[in-house]
Specification:
Rossmann fold, 266 residues, 7 strands, alpha/beta, 9 helices, 33% helix
Length: 266
């Protein structure tokens, strides 16, 4: 089985198991009642600065995952295309959209090619947390994001800060588990832990123009225990200590990264 097929098969399985919690009525109701809750507050403020109104804007969300950002953009008045390599992720998203009467386009495609999307079609492309680890060719991804954007269109990314990919989950001391410049591939599914320079250089090589960078700390959610499922087990006092770097040195490091770039006519 080729790498692409292995990744697709894994995500199809996870969509029905570990990711099923993102499809619950409770989770979707939160997005419906507070569309901005699908985004980190800093990332959402960046979106609002670029597009004070999303009404009528054409938005593409490659590697759309749980589709929460897709639903939020639709609820804010945008025309949204959800793209993912996993048919099951898209099927779950389409079921929720149909249930709520939302007109959203779902396309199964690879983020590195976006071969089913026409050039110059979108005002805005957004990628969310967890996309870059699955991308083995960053240049191809960003070249195709540039291609599908209209002139003066915007790209905005929200992602785990690359610094965090190289530390373990020890909350008492910082434990390095691998060097920063060791980017992969790792594991059977060949994931990557790209550096900031890898992402920025790929954006630059695509002819997108960087406009703003934000590094966010543990003001809202955290990476290291969110993915391990520990948050649900913690008492309120224990949770509060996680946000204090004197007690948890990992909180002294930036947890999240948001980048905003533009496509200008060549």
């Amino acid at each position: 089985m080729e790498k692409r097929d292995r990744i697709k098969a894994a995500w199809n399985e996870w969509s029905d198991t570990s990711f099923a919690k993102y499809h619950t009525d409770e989770r979707i109701a939160k997005v419906i009642n507070q569309p901005e809750s699908a985004f980190h507050p800093t990332t959402f403020s960046m979106i609002r600065e670029v597009f004070p109104s999303l009404k009528g804007k054409r938005i593409c969300v490659p590697s759309s995952g749980d589709n929460h950002a897709v639903f939020a953009f639709h609820l804010m008045g945008a025309q949204v295309t959800s793209v993912d390599i996993s048919e099951r992720q898209l099927e779950h998203g389409a079921i929720i959209a149909e249930k709520n009467g939302w007109d959203i386009e779902f396309i199964c495609d690879d983020t590195m090619s976006l071969s089913k999307l026409k050039s110059g079609e979108y005002d805005f492309v957004y990628t969310s947390n967890g996309v870059h680890v699955w991308i083995h060719d960053l240049n191809a991804m960003y070249q195709n994001i540039h291609r599908i954007l209209k002139n003066n269109g915007a790209y905005l990314m929200y992602e785990v800060h690359p610094f965090m990919r190289h530390f373990g989950n020890n909350l008492e001391k910082v434990v390095v588990v691998k060097p920063y410049d060791s980017v992969g591939p790792f594991g059977e599914l060949e994931q990557y832990t790209w550096r900031i320079q890898d992402i920025l250089n790929a954006i630059a090589s695509s002819n997108l123009t960087m406009k703003r960078v934000e590094e966010m700390y543990a003001e809202y959610n955290t990476y290291w225990f969110e993915v391990s499922g520990e948050r649900e087990k913690m008492a309120k006092e224990e949770m509060e200590r996680l946000y204090q770097w004197e007690h948890n040195p990992l909180s002294a490091l930036p947890q999240w990264l948001s980048l905003y770039a533009r496509k200008f006519p060549l």
